[in-house]
Amino acid sequence: MKTDANPRDVFDLSGPIHLCGRRLAPGDKQGLMAALAQAIYVAENDRLKGRLGTYALAPKWSMELGYAPVKYIHEEEEEIGPIIGATFQRIDTVEVLEQDANVTPIMVVALRGMMLGNEESIHNDMLTNLQLILHQLHTTARFTKAMELIRDAISEVGHERVSIVGHSLGAALALLAGQMLVSEGILVDTHMFNPPYPAPPVQYIKSRRVKLALNLVGMAVATGVSHLLLDSDKRHGITHAFFSLRRWVPHLYINARDPICSSYIGYFMTRDFMQKVGAGPLAQQAAPVSLQGTIHQYLRDDCKTFHLIPCAHVHVATKRSSKLVRAHGLHQWWWPDLEVDHQEVHMVMDE
To answer: Which of 22, 51, 189, 319 lies in the 20 to 30 Å Cα band around 235?
Structure first.
């Protein structure tokens, strides 16, 4: 049995130890959710390295924060393949005050993103990422398994006591799951760290005016192409589905130096700018569409544009990491000295 471990897998070396042994405040939930998502990565590393029983490192990532792992889900039906997610249950569930339940929910469903360094994990992750790019994430076995896990948690304790958290590809799964639940009238607290936004990362451009101009041009092109390729009924259906999500306000955690998720900043900034200058109706037309999504929807009727939402709590890390691996990583989100700008975004449709 291999017991060697990357320090980033060891809770005492890399985890949010400042959250241990105390009652968590609302501002601590970000770190808690990120740590539970990290537990999935560590659990998969435990599996790959044969760390079992007392050698396993993953349990400490949840137990030290008051959560016990209840169920892991695997890529394959035999439950011997890569671990892709898990359910965690709060340990002290007997006397949970309402204000505590908002910070530390009874159950948390956590979903991981792509893992590097192992052929089996990379192969499965790449196949799912390909379906994400093709806007077919909802057809994957991984999404089906994630939805089953989420529904089981909701059935057990109620949707008000469940939180969903995902990182990277796992954030895309969480976002899509949240949307599907909204369509059923179920609103679940959802936290998405570094969610993928398939668009050129113009946030790397320093000039704010140039970034805004490029985003406006991109928005205009996407809107024009949607009118060119999609009939009015299909466009109306897309718009209706988009604004039906406005009762749900999930949490997005973005790093401006992360090219995978940073385009969310431009997405919300551009639409906010248009509403402020009196171009709200145009912003409403543009918000539900993306160029890539429109092309896929033209080619295939069963495509779902998963990444566009009308409302969100947007948390942007302002202490930027110079390296991509850190900008896209989970560890930054529980740093005690992390500086984050918080903004609540709401886009409503004129009746």
So the answer is: 189
User: Closest Cα partner for 255 from 337, 314, 209?
Assistant: 314
Helix axes 119-133, 169-183, angle to 10 degrees: 50
Structural domain includes residue 232: no
Nearest to 89 by CA among 75, 109, 73: 109
Specify the pTM: 0.91
The span from the CA of 252 to the CA of 313, in Å, is 6
Strands, E assignment, 147-233: 162-167, 189-193
Instruction: Give the whole-angstrom CA distance, residue 188 versus residue 204.
Output: 33
Tens-digit pLDDT profile for residues 160-206: 999 999 999 999 999 999 999 999 999 999 999 999 998 877 766 77
DSSP type of residue 25:
P
For residue 21, the one-letter residue type is G
300 lies in a domain? no
Structural domain range at position 124: 7-200+246-277+306-346
